[in-house]
Amino acid sequence: MQEYSVATHRIGVCTVVRNTNGHYLYVPRFENPEVGCSAGGGMEFAVEEGLYKDITTACTAKRELFEETGIDGKVFVFLGVVYEDGKDGVSYATHVYLLEDPIDPDFPLVPEKGIQPIWVTEEEFVRRAAFPSSEVMLRWARRFDRIA
Fold this sequence. Notes:
Elements: E1 9-16, E2 24-28, E3 36-37, E4 39-42, E5 47-48, E6 51-52, H1 57-69, E7 76-85, E8 91-99, E9 118-120, H2 122-128, H3 134-142
Parallel strand pairs: 1-8
Antiparallel strand pairs: 1-4, 2-3, 2-9, 5-6, 7-8
């Protein structure tokens, strides 16, 4: 049986968010603002006040979206899991969610640590994506497209 550890395997989330103009939320990465992805990050297993911080990946998606953009997402659609091997030797299982209702493009996005989230076209999102799987995530999201 294969053994897993947080040193070699990580669980994360990515939340695909669209606005009513059909653009996608893009969050530049701290280490290189020229690349990024949707709001997302890793599960936090820390215990706060006797409770686990992130009980499910959906909780992680909601928390990360709010931390990185100020958007308080309510209804998420689970799209699937992307498995990727990182350059750091770590295997990632990224749970992909879609914020079901499109956001008003004038919603004031809140920057985290000076990194300003922006709305971009699908083509720009794929071109600037930090992860090869970003195009797959958008293809999954189009299955639930309520804008067109």
